[in-house]
Amino acid sequence: MAASYHARSNSLPSRQHPIVSQIDENLNRLKASQSASTSSSIGHNLSGLQDLHECVDVLLQLPFTQQALAQEKQREMVEELLDGSLMLLDVCTTAKDALLQTKECTQELQSILRRRRGAEGLANEFRKYLTSR
Known about the structure:
Layout: H1 18-32, H2 39-61, H3 63-70, H4 75-115, H5 119-132
Helix pairs in contact: 1-2, 2-4, 4-5
């Protein structure tokens, strides 16, 4: 008498796309450096935000993401997500521009101090800097 066995296979969850891991890493890095507020750390964090935004953009372009986003139920949420992404990009651009302007003004002030043009020249440049803000 021969025994009959039926074999079943377990269906394991599929591995996540590598871009999802990159997004997680970027988020963790940003969370870890959240408390620092020096100009270099702000610049580094803005660069990290840009990297995160680029990863999310890549994720949104993947075929399986496009298929999921095509469903009518999720259309409103997708629009909100895209609007939020654009607002985040605008904020990052504005912050980066402000940081670059501050850096340029700081370098100009340091140059004036090095040239030792005197207190009057420094006061004039400082007034220009304050009015530009």
